[in-house]
Amino acid sequence: MNGKGENILNLNHLEYFKVLAETQHMSKASEKLGISQPSLSYAIKKLEDELQVPLFEPDGRNIKLTIIGKKYYGYISDSLKSLDYGNKVVEQLKNPNTGHINLGFTYTLGQKLVPDIMTSFLNVPGNSEVSFSLIQDNSYNLLESLYHDELDMILASKVELRMARHSDEIFDFIPLVQQEIKLAVPKDHPLYSKKTISLNDLDGEDLITFSKHSGLNSLIKKILNQTKAKPNIKYELEEDHSIIGFVEHNMGIALVPNLPQLKQDKMALRSIEDNHLEHNLYLIISRNHFSPPSVHRFQNFALKYCLKNYINKNTML
User: Domain 4-91: which CATH class?
Assistant: First the structure.
């Protein structure tokens, strides 16, 4: 494998192997790759001869990976993914005004903060050609995706993954903004008429709260620990607007982050006068991980944006 052409050919063979391993069907794989079945068969045979091991075996009319093939697929899949990522980085380095950002954020941030930051970023000269892929999820799942390099950065709460290492050892949590926690009450609830709420008012109330995979779950518990009041935890849901929907249908009250764009025709958000805890949101990136220029540029912009519009003004989202 000393010749240049042979190296390129072998790289193609690895890509063919990856697609065939994922489809385990010759005609589907050849169609996906845009090559003939004989060409695909030849490439796989060539790769097996080079490795001196069988990678596939018959499975009725189809084929399946051998035990060795399964092991090999794991390494090849990761290697090709890294190579593809490297090619994208090189393209961005050639033209720093372009690039693509895989951005994840929690549900509440899609109402105002993320659209504000993205719009302001794209309006800066030189940034208009940067593209985005957007994912909304709970903080736990977003951190999982960041850990597996499926996202470049996320805007989320701080939670712990089920791993041997603490999240602080894997990620950098950069403070971004704070959200006030308010009480959501339906229109015909006795607390609706109160302009401000005390935590003691929650005693005995049916409370709808966040599921354990939400970064808000532990915060709500800490808020409730500030009082002797004992609300009845009735339901645990993952997403803010689902919780609001339950509140609107008189199924309970809820402690939720301030949602500035929320229509309050069937319910209201009330400030809690004796709560001293806010929802801290972070810009989170993987530690010791190289970021392409566009990702690094957006990261710096988001931090400066929040510093100017929230932190320096001592305001919450």
Answer: mainly alpha
